[in-house]
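Table S4 entry, ADP-ribosylation factor-like protein 6.
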Amino acid sequence: MGLFDRLASCLGIKKKEVNVLCVGLDNSGKSTMINQLKPSSAHSEDIVPTIGFSVERFSTTSLSFTVFDMSGQGRYRSLWEHYYSASNALTGEGLKEGVDWLQDQIQSMKV
């Protein structure tokens, strides 16, 4: 049983499909983090900056993930709110200095 499967079991998550929204500052490593979460057979050799957004899908033994990798560039941040309500989890990547900024962004998406 892998990390995600153990975590889901401990948390009592019964849902088989999980949508994750990954937001954060530009060039903060969001795509790299997502790449490392995927099974090793699905790792990408070259990670390029995300323009707009990209969708990554991968599965573990008991869970199927859809990860929305959102660009951190200012001109694309308005896209974040469109994916927020459909997500089961939210992750934010960036330097410690970006924590306040990320919190403000999340608060602005809440309805």
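The CA atoms of residues 31 and 103 lie 20 Å apart.
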